[in-house]
Each structure stands twice: as structure tokens, then as C-alpha cells.
Design a protein that fits this description.
Residues 15-115 are annotated as: Disordered. By secondary structure, the protein is an alpha/beta fold. The protein is built from twelve helices and nine strands. A four-stranded antiparallel beta sheet has the order 7-1-8-9, covered by helices on one side. Strands 4-3-5 form a three-stranded parallel beta sheet, with helices on both faces. The protein has a two-stranded antiparallel sheet with strand order 2-6. The longest helix is centred in the N-terminal third of the chain and has 26 residues, at 100-125.
């Protein structure tokens, strides 16, 4: 028995020739295992499948009896049939990424692996990548036009008349920036005045009265006169109005609450402070027809008013502007305590036509015009 073991060791000592790992898939068969070698053939223009089939049909060497002595009793396990096959030159070149889609994807995969490894290193050592902050957009500021220097009142009137070039008679407008806070109740600016030379446009006046007051309003030239029937007509008329001013007797003020939402937004609601709620209906109608205007500060602390037509003479326009400035000074809030009547109150005064450019007016010339109007009123 011992000599058989020594004989077996002697037989196993020489090196074995390379054995292919392609075996039959059935491990229990007793057929002898034939090692197969696949010589490398030159690249053939045929498909890779044909090269593999030709390599599988190559000749095999005869098995050596010495190989059978070292095999296990159950035989060898058959590996993957595709494993260990010799590759052709085309397959080897394609496997190395020498072109095609695989060659294009390999650099991308390599870059992805590098980015992932860098991210793992940063997370392991606690490094935080700085976020790129986008710069704020640069605001392109438009070039500001040089402000016009304030000019004399008469010169500004001439400029407005020269620049009124529309195909209709434009209105001379005044826009006054006041130094008050409209959010405070004690700094509210509002008032009314009758322009010495009128507004230059026809004004339709509506009067809410009955009886003798209604007759006086008709005699004074009121365009619309009525009582409860006029209120009901306005309420059911869908917001259509055919008048520009409203005057009411004190008796009708509670009844006007039905149409307050219609008259209020249009500035037509009668107000005792503005003289539109009065028992002297005849005088109120005459004043409204002669050019009575109301003014009130808006949310931006600016007062807007129309003071006549551009076809008025320069002297008429100057007197209308003087009357308006005088009324502004009378409506000055008591809380504005300044050494001058204008300091801190009238910040900017601009004249323009309906569709023309504006021209700033100096405070000194406005003061002269207001004093001139006051002198005429005293006489």
C-alpha cells in the first residue's frame, strides 16, 4: 500500500500541461474529460459568434493517465461555459475601450468614480464644500435728467402756453408738493375757492332740495334739481351721472347716505366744510357756476388743481394762481410752526398744461401773486 502512495507522488511531480476549464456540465458522468486548447486565430471579418464556434471545433490532445490519478472521485465542477475562452484581437481591442460606445463611456465612469471618492473623503474628514454664491444683479440706474431751476410765475405761464400744442384747449394745472403727513388727521389739507376768472369750462350743478329751496336753485341756474326721486334715480341708474357739482340742504344730508358709495369716490359728496351743504342754495349755485373749485391732498402729499384754460390771458391766469395759493395758505395745518408762511409747507410748485411738460415756479413769485390777490379782495 505504501509503495502505491510513493508511485502516485512520483507521477504527480512533473508539471502538467495547461488544461482548459471547459468541461461537460454533467458532473456525474463517467466519460473521460478531454482538455481542449484554443489557438488564437487572426482577426476575421466574420462576426464574433462565428470565431467562437470555430475555436470550439479545434482539435484536442489525448488525455494523460497521470491526470486521472489526481482527480476527485466525483469529477471536477464545470465552471461558467463562457469563462476562459480565448478572445480575438477585435474582442481584446473592444475590451480595452479602443473605440465605440464603451470607449466613450469609460472616461465618464472614471470621472464619476473620482467625484464619488472625493465626496467620501470630504464627508469622512468633515470638510464642507463652499456653496457658490451668485452675485446680485447690478441695477442699471437710468440717467436722471437735470432738474429745471424754478422760474418766475409769469415766465412759467408763458412756457406753459407755448408748449400747449394739442388740438383742443388744454387746462392750466397746478401740482403742489406739501411738507405734511397725510396719514395724520391734524395735517389734512383741504379747501375750496372761487377763481376770479372761472375755470373756463361749463359746470353742471345738481341740487338736492325741495320746496322754496328747490325754486331758488332753479332760478340761480341749477341744471338738476330734485329730492327723493333724484336720489332713487341715481341709486338705480348704474352709476351714470350728468352733473359735475352737488349741493344739498342740511335736511337732505341723512338721505344722501343711500348714494354715498356712488358720489364719494367721484368727489361729488356734499361737505359742510366745503360749503356744498348750505341753506343758501342760490349763492352756492352761483359760486359753482362762476368757477368754484375744491382741492384736497392725496396720499402722496400732493394737491392737484385746474386753474383755467391756456387761452386765458397771462394776467387772468396769474390772478387765478394767486387766489389758489392764498387758499392753500388758509388751509395750512396749525401743527406746522415755521417762521415763514411757506417754509416747510410748500416744497414744490409746478405748472403745466393737460398734456404738456411741467415748469417749476419760485416761491417768491408765488408769494407776490398771493399778496396781490389779497390786496384786490380787501379793496
Amino acid at each position: 500500500m505504501a509503495h502505491l502512495v510513493r508511485l502516485r507522488r512520483l507521477l504527480l511531480r512533473p508539471s502538467y500541461p495547461q488544461i482548459s476549464r471547459t468541461f461537460s456540465s454533467s458532473s456525474s458522468s463517467s466519460a473521460p474529460i478531454k482538455p481542449v486548447s484554443y489557438p488564437v486565430k487572426p482577426e476575421d471579418p466574420s462576426s464574433p459568434n462565428e470565431d467562437d464556434d470555430a475555436a470550439a471545433a479545434s482539435t484536442s490532445t489525448a488525455p494523460s493517465p497521470r491526470l486521472l490519478l489526481g482527480l476527485p472521485r466525483g469529477g471536477l465542477r464545470a465552471p461558467n461555459p463562457g469563462h476562459g475562452r480565448a478572445r480575438t484581437r477585435g474582442q481584446a481591442r473592444r475590451g480595452r475601450g479602443g473605440g465605440g460606445e464603451g470607449g466613450e463611456e469609460e472616461p465618464l465612469q472614471r470621472e464619476a468614480r473620482r467625484i464619488q471618492s472625493d465626496a467620501r473623503v470630504r464627508s469622512f474628514f468633515g470638510f464642507q464644500e463652499e456653496e457658490e454664491k451668485a452675485p446680485y444683479p447690478t441695477l442699471i440706474r437710468p440717467e436722471k435728467k437735470p432738474q429745471k431751476a424754478p422760474m418766475d410765475l409769469m415766465e412759467a405761464i408763458r412756457e406753459v402756453k407755448a408748449n400747449a400744442k394739442r388740438n383742443f384747449i388744454e387746462t392750466l394745472e397746478a401740482h403742489v408738493v406739501l411738507g405734511v403727513d397725510p396719514r395724520r388727521g391734524d395735517q389734512m389739507v383741504r379747501g375750496a375757492l372761487t377763481l376770479p376768472h372761472g375755470t373756463g369750462k361749463t359746470v353742471r350743478v345738481a341740487v338736492f332740495a325741495e320746496g322754496v329751496a328747490a325754486d331758488e336753485a332753479r332760478a340761480a341756474g341749477a341744471d338738476v334739481v330734485g329730492g327723493d326721486e333724484l336720489i332713487e334715480e341715481i341709486r338705480t341708474g348704474g352709476g351714470k351721472l350728468n352733473f359735475d357739482k352737488c349741493i344739498a340742504t342740511p335736511m337732505y344730508m341723512p338721505r344722501l347716505s343711500k348714494i354715498a358709495r356712488i358720489l364719494g369716490p367721484r368727489g361729488l359728496m356734499p361737505n359742510p366744510k366745503l360749503g356744498s351743504v348750505t341753506s343758501d342754495v342760490s349763492g352756492a349755485v352761483k359760486q359753482a357756476k362762476c368757477g368754484r373749485i375744491d382741492f384736497k391732498i392725496d396720499k402722496t402729499a400732493i394737491v392737484h388743481a385746474g386753474l383755467g384754460k391756456v387761452n386765458f390771458s397771462e394776467e387772468y391766469l396769474r390772478e387765478n394762481i394767486g387766489a389758489f395759493v392764498h387758499a392753500l395758505l388758509l388751509a395750512k395745518p396749525v401743527g406746522l410752526k415755521k417762521t415763514s408762511k411757506y417754509a416747510g409747507y410748500v416744497k414744490n410748485f409746478t405748472l403745466c398744461s393737460t398734456m404738456g411738460p411741467g415748469f417749476p415756479v419760485s416761491i417768491q413769485s408765488l408769494s407776490v401773486a398771493a399778496d396781490h390777490y389779497n390786496t384786490l379782495q380787501v379793496k
